[in-house]
């Protein structure tokens, strides 16, 4: 009768050492949690190009500039064409499970959500969606100005 531990050891010998060490570290310490490593709201401050589609039927093209500023409960997004006094779309930091990089519209627009990450130059990128069909991507355009 074969020894169960022997088969397991033979299997482990076929896995490269670096993979075994990484697997053991993951089992021992658990997955890396980035929930407490959310960037400050100021990281997102600036003017962004917004490209995507709106929620109309049939969908229309969205291609405009928006401004993101820190707000009381996260971020405030305003269209540049609407002006500084226009109502802001609020986005709150709202990690969900293993998705720590989530922004949601909160009570104002709970259906809107955005995933954020950064590009190779450490600028934020946001991919946003809503059930009404809105889908757009935001990327910073540091050389463009938007009214505050």
Short description:
The protein has 148 residues and is an alpha+beta fold. The chain has helices spanning 4-13, 17-29, and strands spanning 46-53, 61-71, 74-79, 89-93, 102-104, 113-118, 124-129, 135-140.
Structural summary, described in words:
The chain is 16% helix and 34% strand. The chain is an alpha+beta fold and 148 residues long. The chain folds into 2 domains: 4-33; 41-140. The protein has an 8-stranded antiparallel barrel. A hairpin with a 2-residue loop joins strand 2 (61-71) and strand 3 (74-79). It is globular and about 40 Å long. It starts with a helix and ends in an 8-residue tail after the last strand.
Structural class: alpha+beta
Please tally the helical runs, counting DSSP H or I stretches of 4 or more residues.
Answer: 2
Strand share of the residues?
25-35%
Q: How many β-strand stretches? A: 8
| Main sheet specs | 8 strands, antiparallel, barrel
Percent helix range: 10-25%
Which of globular, elongated, flat, extended, rod-shaped describes the shape? globular
Radius of gyration: 22 Å
Strand order of the largest sheet: 1-2-3-4-5-6-7-8
Q: Please mark out the parts with pLDDT under 50 across 5 or more consecutive residues, or reply none.
A: 17-35
């Amino acid at each position: 009768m074969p020894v169960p531990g022997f088969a397991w050891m033979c299997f482990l010998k076929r896995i490269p050492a670096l993979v075994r060490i990484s697997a053991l570290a993951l089992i021992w310490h658990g997955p890396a949690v980035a929930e407490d490593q959310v960037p400050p709201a100021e990281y997102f401050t600036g003017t962004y190009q917004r490209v995507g589609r709106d929620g109309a039927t049939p969908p229309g093209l969205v291609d405009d500039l928006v401004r993101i500023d820190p707000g009381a409960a996260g971020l405030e997004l305003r269209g540049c064409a609407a002006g500084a006094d226009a109502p802001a779309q609020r986005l709150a930091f709202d990690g969900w499970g293993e998705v720590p990089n989530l922004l949601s519209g909160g009570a104002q627009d709970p259906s809107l959500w955005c995933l954020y990450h950064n590009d190779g130059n450490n600028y934020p990128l946001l991919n946003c969606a809503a059930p009404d069909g809105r889908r757009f991507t935001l990327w910073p355009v540091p050389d463009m100005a938007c009214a505050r």
